[in-house]
Amino acid sequence: MTALKELSIDGTSVRQIPISIGNLKNLEILSGFKCFPLTYLPSSISYLTALCKLSLDGAKVNELPSSLGDLLNLRLLSLRDCRYIEELPDSIGKMGSLEELDISATSISNLPNSIRNLQSLRVLRMDSTFIRAFPGEIGNLTKLEELHASWCRSLKGALPGDIGGLCHLRSLTLGHSSVSSLPPEISTLSGLHTLDLLHCNEIEGLPKLPPSLICLHVSSNRMKAIFSLEDLKELEELCLSDGDPMAHQLPSKQPMPESNVNRMIDKQSFSISFPKLRKLELSLSQVIKLRFELTDMPPLKRLKMLTLPGSSRREVSELPKTLSVFKLYHSAIEEIEGLEGLEALKRLDILNCKIQNLDRLGQLTSLRSLILSECNYLSLPDLSNLKSVKVLEIRRCKMIHQIEGLEKLTSLEKLNISECPAENTVQVQKALKLQKALKREIESMDSETETGDPL
């Protein structure tokens, strides 16, 4: 047994790891994944000098031995979902080889200051913990590439300026935390690709962001201004929201400190001119006009998915022809200009909007899915040309009394017409019956396939 290199007690009923485990001098991997009854980790674990991976995800261990820091060759320590662990031993700072630390969903509220000594650390995960602040001198973790602290409700206030020392940081996720501001030093993180600040409702503004960003998610009910993002030419995914438009308050007239704020842009008009953008979700409650700048070199030609949830926006101009998914939610838009030009569009969702007509809808011959809900002013044109549509859902649309061309949708696989006048027409009832018959036939064929045809 002394030659054993890997020991897995994953999913077992083991309650304690024996003291004698220290005799396994060659052990490299010890895994107790979902070993729920496990409550005790002996101090003799420190004798496992060859150990490079220790995973106790989901165990009921409530205390880590102070000798844990003697595992000088440990590269991965995962304590995810160990809800009874409240602190890490100070000795963890001795783990000079540690590359990945996961304490997500534990009861840990503070990180020991010694964590700044983990010079090899590349990934730090502490999502859904009670962490109140980042440790002092976090900038010492110069090899850190990923820092995850989403759903840390107790994480409040401003991030420390030391974060600017994380010169290799690629991903910073703080969504659903109570962080109130980012330091200006974040602009120096030249390798930062992902910044997630979704539902960080204490944030009122942002400093200048590094031009290396590829994915930016920001939403806050307290956002007082939308800042110029024109330097973010590498952006491929952008989600930007200033909160629920029904609950939105006008921005304060007090100017924000110049040191904390990037250049503000007019919230009455918002331009999109990111040449590499593929996915955009935009919910700005004061934006009335949204412009897509198609004259830039190179033009905005990669955008595939556009989602426009809740806003008072009344106009969208020059939609990119590359769109394959377009979602419009809770909007004051009455007409979609250039709809007929979306030759690549495969999915169109319109929910709770004031839109009145989709006259050019029949020209979207690539459309696969059409979902309309709670659009009480909307009437439909003839759908006969939508030969590729597989999904058609129309719910609670009071002005849709009939669906012309429904019988010609030969690719239709899913039909749901409910709580609108068209629901009771002979045409729709016939189509629904046909759908049910086809479903029964498919289920019957599947059943025969499972049981096997009798010879």
Automatic annotation (TrEMBL):
<keyword id="KW-0677">Repeat</keyword>
<dbReference type="InterPro" id="IPR001611">
    <property type="entry name" value="Leu-rich_rpt"/>
</dbReference>
<dbReference type="InterPro" id="IPR032675">
    <property type="entry name" value="LRR_dom_sf"/>
</dbReference>
<protein>
    <recommendedName>
        <fullName>Disease resistance R13L4/SHOC-2-like LRR domain-containing protein</fullName>
    </recommendedName>
</protein>
<feature type="domain" description="Disease resistance R13L4/SHOC-2-like LRR">
    <location>
        <begin position="67"/>
        <end position="151"/>
    </location>
</feature>
<dbReference type="InterPro" id="IPR055414">
    <property type="entry name" value="LRR_R13L4/SHOC2-like"/>
</dbReference>
<dbReference type="InterPro" id="IPR003591">
    <property type="entry name" value="Leu-rich_rpt_typical-subtyp"/>
</dbReference>
<dbReference type="Pfam" id="PF23598">
    <property type="entry name" value="LRR_14"/>
</dbReference>
<keyword id="KW-0433">Leucine-rich repeat</keyword>
<feature type="domain" description="Disease resistance R13L4/SHOC-2-like LRR">
    <location>
        <begin position="152"/>
        <end position="241"/>
    </location>
</feature>
